[in-house]
Amino acid sequence: MEFLAGDLLTPLSAVGLIVLSAITSMVSAAFGAGGGLMLLVVMASLLPMNIVIPVHGLVQLGSNANRFMLTFKHLDKSMFVYFSLGGIIGVLAASSIVAHIPLELMKIVVAGFVLYLLWGVTPKLRETSKLWRYMAGAVTTFLSMFVGASGPLVGSCLYVNNYEKLKYTATFSACMSVQHTFKAILYGFVGFSFWQWLPLVTSMIISGALGTWLGLQLLQRISVAKFKAIFRAVLTLLALQLAWQGLQAF
Fold it and tell me: Where are the transmembrane segments (predicted)?
């Protein structure tokens, strides 16, 4: 347990995070998004944010990669390619200011954007719009470097495509996987040492794989209409929570 916990966590906290990783992965697999932000909120109460964001990103990379491998045949390949190309622009833009931008302000910006896409007048863009797909990748990847859990933001961008359940899950997981890969590269480049956290991260990824499998079983039993209603409600609540976190700092 001490090997997993390191110097900043108690053994009980480390075990709690491993169990929570399974639960939050199940939530994301079943309802489309939300698990990553739930995990981020708990991790932020136990560790400094400069550690939370890169470590959380690595755990989410494993979780989303597991989900993608189980649903890859449903992937919207065009969306994934353009999202990834836009993501390269986003991470390059973030690289010069990653240590200076105010985290609390970014939380409010992300929350507002999510709520607008869910409840406002959505942009008049075709589902196949290359510009929208580039911009979705660039903007969400840029913001994810500072906010940590960008799942609600990416999910709201995919929401306008009106995907069916499994196509949404596969495309969301693929986009999040590439985004968290960019994050790991960026934080490694600026000097974050992942090695001491690998035992905990590996354990959380393994438990998350079990949660993902359970969540996908639940997903197949949910009707399309119910899935979309729950998905929209979950994203709205998480966006409001994110905005509240940002406002409290002011």
Answer: 12-31, 37-59, 80-99, 105-122, 134-154
Per-residue model confidence as pLDDT tens digits over 122-157: 555 455 577 888 888 898 888 877 766 677 778 777
Where b means 16+ CB within 10 Å and e means fewer, 29-62 reads bbbbbbbbbbbbbbbbeebeeebbbbbbbbbbbb
Over the chain, what HEC string results?
A: CHHHHCCCCCHHHHHHHHHHHHHHHHHHHHHCCCHHHHHHHHHHCCCCHHHHHHHHHHHHHHHHHHHHHHHHHHCCHHHHHHHHHHHHHHHHHHHCCCCCCCHHHHHHHHHHHHHHHHHCCCCCCCCCCHHHHHHHHHHHHHHHHHHCCCHHHHHHHHHCCCCCHHHHHHHHHHHHHHHHHHHHHHHHHCCCCCHHHHHHHHHHHHHHHHHHHHHHHHHCCCCHHHHHHHHHHHHHHHHHHHHHHHHHCC
Structure tokens at 143: 């913001």
Apex 153 CA angle, 151 and 155, nearest 5: 65
Please indicate whether residue 69 or residue 36 has the higher confidence score (pLDDT): 69
Whole-structure pTM value:
0.73
Give the gyration radius of the chain's Cα atoms. 17
Structure tokens at 45: 């109460």
If you count them, how many residues does the chain have?
A: 250
100: CB partners within 8 A, 6+ apart: none
Q: What value does the mean pLDDT of the chain take?
A: 78
CA atoms within 13 A on the CB side of 182: 31
Rounded CA separation 79/230 (Å): 23
